[in-house]
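Reopening this one. Same input as before:
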Amino acid sequence: MDQDTFLTTLYVMIDDFCQSQGYDEKHRPGPAASLSCSEVVTLAMFGQWGHFPSERAYYRYALSHFRTAFPTMPNREQFNRLQRQHRDVIVAFSLYLVEQMQAQRCLYEALDSSGIATRDAKRRGTGWLAGQADIGWSNRIGWYEGFHLPTSITPTGVITGFGFAAASCNDHPLAETFFAARQYPSPRLTSVGAPAQGVYVADKGFAGDRLHRHWQAWYGAEVVSPPHQHSKVRWSKPWRRWLDCVRSLRPFTTSCSIPSGWPVSALTRWMAFKRAWQPKSLCITFASGSTCKWAASLWLSLICSTGKFVISIHTKRLSCKIHPNRETDTIEIDLTRDQGFGPKLLVQI
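Same output, byte for byte:
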């Protein structure tokens, strides 16, 4: 789909949503706005869909490429004010897309937080966001002044909810508020979205067995995270590799294994591939199959290319036979030991 077709389709979807949900233009005294509500939301959503280094770079791109579609494009300062004015509509449409895509029908959601800088931390004064933004620490950017942004993301990269807090806010109270707002919706915190249908996979910032039990009892949120660095419990290397696999949306190829301590039943569904946005290539999203104890240490690597199935298997004392099925877009893998039969893995393309 070319860019103009995508922009037109996006505008039609947003305009239908605004009219059906009652986000019509409200007549106010004074001159009319240069852009309608649907046009502002369309430009805002397109700016998040594309990869632009800054808001200024996106505005320059929109000014040079979208002049025919939006002839009344205002200056950058006014455009930013229009986006802030229609913030509730942008959030509502984002959650509407999550619902229409059925993105939350997945095994887990990755819970993480990041620092968003709004001002140089070394500048004097309180700034224009006094009382909302303050100084905090981020492993990615160091000391900064701005916000702490929690997000919940599906394995396919869909953001199902987000929020804002001061930069100095710790991950624990941030997650507490996030789970509470999801379980007990508030009109002031609609951006967090709906509760996850699976578990939350998080990093060490959300560690704590007592906190996990509290979140599950009060908010129905089951969190899986590695133990704290001062904890006496230590995860094995397969467990750490598994967590790193399911939390990262790696491009091209991704590998995953079942941890040796996993409570394996007769049929265990597990994620074996994440995200692969490679031009003119297929995308393997998951693998499922029957497992047992001796297959729990299986290390599976999947590669898929256009026109044919290309697959690579790395195992311990296991051999495999591959049976591709082009009609159903699946690959059936027979895993056998030196003697006897093993389980079967069915890979969906």
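So the earlier flakiness isn't reproducible anymore. For the record, Confidence is low (pLDDT under 50) at residues 250-320, 335-349.
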